[in-house]
Design brief:
The protein has 14 helices and 16 strands. By secondary structure, the chain is of the alpha/beta class. The strands form 3 sheets. Strands 1, 2, 3, 4, 7, 8, 9, 10, 11 and 12 form a 10-stranded mixed β-sheet that branches. It has a 4-stranded parallel β-sheet with strand order 13-14-15-16, sandwiched between helices. The chain is globular.
């Protein structure tokens, strides 16, 4: 029976980490002292507040490992599409924390790549270093450090979904629909199963994985916990329960259990520390849906994947409207199964998102509205192009979305490109 500890952080993070490792004989029984590098993988999808693993927990973990004599430390990540990891590390303070504790920052969206086979029958391009150091392990130790978050497409995002960072940006775009996303998440987990997982739960996020800064009070739920153990699936099952969800409600966790990738039955997990009975609230995972009132949404009647074209468009739009005061007066089309009347009297320029909508109505809209600018996003999850075109339509300049001096942002991007950036980033000026 796997052990999962829910530790209270109100005293301090060091004692909470001690409690996480204690049932396994302490950290030095969990992580070999004479092994390779300890690779820590936070959830660093973006630099906006509460979208990423709390820097205080990353710092506490690195300090804790240093105190126990571990010196070969690395912090690896590849952030969400339309951004790049070197910038995320700079804004969040991850880069400064790495320097302070002698940990190597590993930007998985830079450098050579390699192709790997996945259990779902697909292939993916990943960082060559990830293949050599994590997939093949070679004596290294992989510690996953996700954040306690709901997710509008995957219900929750914890230790299993933390692997979604590993395919290069271009490979994430296609396997991101209702039919493909959940199996892809389980397959990536099967490829790279962490040796240990600690979920940062100082604050949980409701209404999805990307809190809108202007509306934070509607997203944040103080928890003051860490959740940890060596079986990441078991940790996720407990984390999902803390958020108010069962295994059956989280498809990628259900698949992992079905494939024998860990313990998925809550009754068969030895949960220690904070009692599960403390967590009585079900945090909603659906988005708030605060969209610009003057943007027309034309959504296919047959299909419009929350996991793909629709969900990504909504998340991008909600951010640009609420946090960057984006403008309206235009139309967004996504999904499949349109009637002719759906395309009548569309306002402004038009953005068509996803392969289904592009194939079904792309040419029709170009013929019906020859005087309009019509933009197409050809893939399910092309966040770069989606963000670029929505920002253009809403009058938002991408470089102004970064809380840094624009020259610093440009220099950071130049550094990433010199190191072989594989992420696709919108032009800084739109």
């Amino acid at each position: 029976m796997p052990i999962v500890v829910i530790s209270d952080t109100t005293q301090n993070l060091k004692s909470a980490l001690e409690e996480i490792f204690a049932p396994h004989g302490g950290v030095e029984s969990v992580i070999p002292k004479n092994g390779g590098t300890i690779y820590i993988k936070p959830n660093g999808i973006h630099f906006t507040p509460y979208a990423h693993t709390d820097p205080a927990v990353l710092e506490a973990l690195l300090a804790y490992l240093r105190d126990h004599g571990y010196t070969r430390l690395a912090v690896m990540e590849s952030c969400t599409g339309g951004n790049f990891t070197r910038l995320v590390y700079k804004v969040t303070g991850y880069a400064k924390i790495c320097r302070r504790y002698g940990a190597e920052p590993v930007y998985l969206d830079e450098g050579p790549t390699a192709e790997v086979d996945l259990r779902d029958g697909t292939r993916a391009h990943v960082s060559r270093r990830l293949r050599d150091e994590i997939i093949q392990r070679n004596g290294n130790f992989y510690l996953s450090l996700p954040k306690l978050k709901t997710h509008s497409m995957a219900t929750v995002t914890l230790g299993v979904k933390n692997q979604q960072a590993f395919p290069v940006d271009a490979d994430r775009m296609k396997q991101h629909s209702h039919e493909t996303l959940h199996r892809r998440l389980a397959a990536l987990y099967a490829l790279t199963r962490p040796d240990f997982c600690i979920v940062e739960g100082l604050t949980a996020t409701a209404h999805g994985h990307f809190p809108i800064t202007a509306l934070l009070e509607e997203y944040l739920v103080p928890m003051n916990i860490l959740i940890g153990g060596p079986d990441t699936l078991a940790v996720d099952v407990v984390g999902a329960r803390v958020l108010g969800y069962s295994l059956e409600e989280v498809e990628h966790l259900r698949l992992c259990a079905e494939w024998g990738l860990g313990e998925g039955r809550l009754a068969h997990i030895d949960v220690r520390g904070v009692e599960l009975s403390r967590f009585t609230e079900r945090l909603p995972h659906t988005m708030l849906g605060r969209f610009h009132p003057d943007v027309r949404w034309v959504v296919g009647r047959t299909k419009a994947c929350v996991e793909g074209c629709r969900g990504n468009s909504e998340a991008t739009h909600e951010m640009l409207y609420n946090d960057y005061h984006g403008q309206g007066g235009w139309t967004l089309v996504c999904g499949s199964g349109f009637e002719e009347a759906d395309l009548d009297n569309l306002p402004g320029d038009i953005l068509i998102v996803g392969p289904c909508a592009c194939a079904e109505v792309g040419d029709t809209l170009a013929q019906r509205y020859p005087d309009r600018r019509i933009y197409r996003v050809e893939e399910h999850n092309d966040l770069m192009t989606n963000t670029r075109y929505q920002a253009r339509l809403m009058g938002v300049t991408p470089v102004k979305m970064v809380p840094l001096n624009p020259l610093v942002s440009a220099f950071t991007l130049a550094q990433a490109k010199l190191h072989g950036l594989t992420a696709r980033v919108p032009p800084l000026l739109g």
